[in-house]
Task: structure prediction
Amino acid sequence: MEKVEKILKNSKYRYYEKKIEEAEKDREFCRHDIKHCIDVARLTLLLSYDENVPLDRELVYGAALLHDIGRAESCADHRQRGAKLCVPILIECGYSKEEAEEIASVIKSHGSPPSEDEKSFRSLFYRADKLSRNCFACAAEKDCYWESDKKNMTLVM
Ligand SMILES: [Fe+2]
Ligand SMILES: [Fe+2]
Result:
């Protein structure tokens, strides 16, 4: 995954990731670190195999690694901001303009629940982002702001 390797070494990506890590160092709730991003990529791919929705791995990992970089500035509107910040990074890393736009649109909508029967990159990605959180094993679950129907209280995949 040549383009994904380039993202990992990209100076803008590393700068945003470092800022988020510093801002969240004392956070008791889920963090938005590289571990979360890789979990989202792998879960998106698991869902895609399970539900026969073919997806390009470089697009999945590109979206997952960059989906929360908007949090480097602030949590509010992080999806909109991330959708803008990701494009120059993706282009520098060898993604085409069309691929960068597709990833930006997935990042922009990663907080909007898809309809139940939607089978798309966007819908699997949304679900993977939520599934990545192990609420059933989280010490801060009781104080978490997530609505109870969003929390993963059993291990699904
Ligand atoms: Fe997010
Ligand atoms: Fe996320």
